[in-house]
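To whoever is covering the structure queue this week,

Two jobs came back overnight. Logging them here so there's a record in the thread.

Job A:
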Amino acid sequence: MGDRPSVAIVGAGITGLTSARTLRSCCDVVVLDKARGVGGRMATRRIGEATIDHGAQFLTTHTGRFTEMVGHWEAEGIATPWFSARVGTRGLEDQAPEVADGHIRYRGVRSMNDIAKHLAGGSDVRREQRVESVSIVDGAWRLRAASYETHVDAVILTAPVPQSLQMIEAGQVQLARSDREALDAIAYDPCLAALVPLSGPSGLPEPGAVDPASGPIDWMADNQTKGVSESPAVTIHASAEESRRLWRSPDEAVLSSLLGAAELDSPPIAGASQVQRWRYARPVVSHPDRCLVASGLPPLVLAGDAFGEPRVEGAVLSGLAAAAAIARLSGVAQLD
């Protein structure tokens, strides 16, 4: 298969893109994703004049390695501080809109998705390629998508774990019992997101976000106040309980419920609101390590924000760990 190990990464979210960027100096890397764009839940959508971050809303740093990475992004004009406090619950008369906690919340300068696009630069990313199966052929890996097939030395699966397991099962690959049990234990909460362009100001206090302590809304942000949208537009994330309750409901019912709870100062622009359904939005039971190296198989690593720790930082650190594991298993030079 050539002097450089070949690696296929399934998923062009923040984990997969981090792995690809880390490995491409020493491996031949291809990234496959079912979507039309990159980023996964680092997602942004344009609706008319509005730019709406509707997946991950910000990122924070708690480790030296990720702090250094975000510092580079800030210097390159990719990320910028948004606020440095816990946002309050809208409507409580005696609660300040922010309570300082010392952690900077960073946003993408133009959007959260732009951070993912920056990470994808220079990598071979094949979009609109839904991987249907991952199988072993002659001691290596074969990945099949609807209109693409590749044979590689090593694989990193970064899709939500239930989706990764479907690919493995379709390829009739038998995981070690301990690996399968560890992966089956991982669980996620869903999230329904409403993307709502408005006819006027939302009325959300600075910094343009509220984080209710209870009720049907888990998070609400004004993308114009945030600094990414030319016109007023809010993102409303339903709570896990509300998302499960409304999951099979039509979009109109989802929007009616969330807009009724939001009590915005300006009405939505007629016909412009949209709903995004994140089935695997938030890991609630994670794997203790930052990635899982499959036992007894050609190099196969599973990674993502359900490994080690959640959120954007966890996804990035998992991508770095997966890249390091593949480099070790492939016998290539130590990564930086």
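Job B:
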Amino acid sequence: MKFKLYFIIAIFLSAFNLNAQAYKNKFNLEVIAPQHKGQTAYLLKYWDEVTYIIDSCQISKQGKGFFRKENSLPTGQYVLFIKPNVQLDLLLDEKTEAIIITLSKDIINSKITGSEDTEILWDYIKHLNIYNEKKAAFNAQNNDIKLSESDKKVNIKKLNSLNKEFDDYLHQLLKNKETTWAGDFIKGMTSVSLPYELPQNNEEVLANNQYVKQHYFDNLSLTNPNLLSTNYFWSYLDNYLDNWVTKNNIDSLAYATSDLVAKSMGNKTCFEQILMRYINKAINSKQMGMENVWSKLAEDYIFDKNYTKVDSVEISALRSQYELIKYNRLGMVAHELRLETIKGDTIQLHDVDAQYIILYFYDPTCSYCLAETESIQKNLYPKYKDKGLKIVTVNTYNDEKTWKDFINQNNISDWINCADPLNKSKYWMFYNTSGVPSVYVLDEDKKIIAKGIDEKGLEQVFNILYKENGTN
């Protein structure tokens, strides 16, 4: 059994390769397709696993169509498409000048000259299709309830022989074509062989999982810019981060993403594209804690670094956002605060003894704060106040009467109501209070375990927390 990477050759729309250059050589592609007279043929190029149209031509009455470009095309994966079902992938590079494609009624038997890499790819696809058809037939037979056990064993032997035959073919192909663009492309799609093909217990399953994590990128080069414009590169990276990195620890994801970017540093184009993709993806994510990812990438590769040419305005904007979350990311111990209570006492946040603390910054003149406070007091606090939850509020509005009125009107006198009228704690430097209400959930060690959520989000968090703790 092998770790499988499934890929689809499909037609979509996207944008130009950001690193495409103009070359001196001309590009000519002739399509011979008498069965498609009068139809439009499209030439498309992959970027970020979808395609954009770069040219089109009409198939003449003589059954021929021509694509001509003044400059050679940048290296990448392309598609020849004729509605409704002609989809042929092409591997082209800047040296490709004259190509002739002869379409067959049976698309898989179409012929190409002038592009050795595409010839290699098409030969591989033919072998792969034959292998998959035979494998599906063996599996269908083995699933037949009428098939005897002895016949099933015979089938399994035949299937093992088929697997070995294809593996031998693929191994030889990659060995013979290791210096070609097609070789890199096919190798990047090749499954990672597992130590236990048929795991028999949980230990072997875990060993397979650990092996994949360590060897996930053995076959995929992160320093080959040609692979950026293919139909599988980015999903392969996303799959690693989404499914092979520890999901319940956001810092694990941050470090794994940084390590992934580090693997691409051997090529400037790959490095910049991968770095900026995952910074932007993390910034735009709605998942709580993704700021840990982009801030880690910014720390490792952008701030005070010369690895890439990021616009100074963009760096400034990124730093502004970074300062807001610099000291209050998930997993960090909440910064100590020395505050004055409504009763005139002085407390320190870390001295509050509670299983969980909601640290709640608000402005009593803010309508959103009023609504959120009412909701927490009505729906959340009564449910968990006897289960180890305490709420520490920090009033950000410097008017004592307004503050006291807010506490009384909302019946939250049993919360730990605090303020910092003399601005001694400088809480705004360590917590993001640029928008209120601003909420942080701390565990008993004062570690931040949730933030930036409303009452509904808090309800979900505490349902999970108390369920995990076995508390009803």
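Note for Job B: The mean pLDDT is 91.

Please reply-all if you pick these up so we don't duplicate work.
Q.
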